[in-house]
Amino acid sequence: MIYDDHFFAIEDQIDSLVTSLVESDVFHSYQQAKQTMYQDHEVQASALAFRRAKEEFEQIERFGKFVPDYKEKQRALRKAKRALDVKEEVAEFRFSENDVQGILDEMCMTIAHQVSEEIKVDAGSPFFTTSSGCGGNCHVS
Questions:
Q1: What residues form the membrane-spanning segments (predicted)?
Q2: Mind giving me the DSSP string for 18-53?
């Protein structure tokens, strides 16, 4: 790659874009939700219980349903995951994380389509609908 003035101009614009994102209300909400989640003792206890249940299940998972405790450990894992997911702090963090991801997806889509409408951008979400593509239906015969 040849580094010239155009490259450095693009790099400066990227830095400006990142700074704008980091200074946005959406990003500040994300950081606040993350900090709140990690400082909550109940959330940390639920996360620890989930990690332990996950480790126990992973130890027997490779042997499949033939292990006597398979169903019980799988159910314990699901219950621990559910207990973690229903915590208000975790839900708020996930919502704010999705908001930041949505902005990043939009940025990537906008940049790619400035180059060419034919560029495919993996937005990470099957529900990302702002693409002007065919949605995969144009290749069906």
A1: none
A2: HHHHHTSHHHHHHHHHHHHHHH-HHHHHHHHHHHHH
What is the residue-level pLDDT of the chain in tens, covering all 141 positions?
A: 788 899 999 999 999 999 999 999 999 999 999 999 999 999 999 999 999 999 999 999 988 888 888 999 999 999 999 999 999 999 999 999 999 999 999 999 998 998 888 888 887 666 544 444 444 444 433
Task: Output DSSP code: residue 126.
Answer: T
Query: 53: buried, middle or exposed (CB in 10 Å: 19+, 13-18, 0-12)?
Result: buried
Calpha distance 86→16 (Å, rounded): 37
Q: Which among 129, 112, 130 is positioned nearest to 121, based on CA atoms?
A: 112
CB 57 within 8 A of CB 77: yes
Please give the model's pTM, rounded to 2 decimal places: 0.73
Q: Which residues contact 97 (CB under 8 A, 6 or more apart)?
A: 30, 33, 34
Please give the Cα distance from 4 to 10 (Å, whole number): 10
Closest-CA residue to 70 (of 81, 59, 79, 83): 59
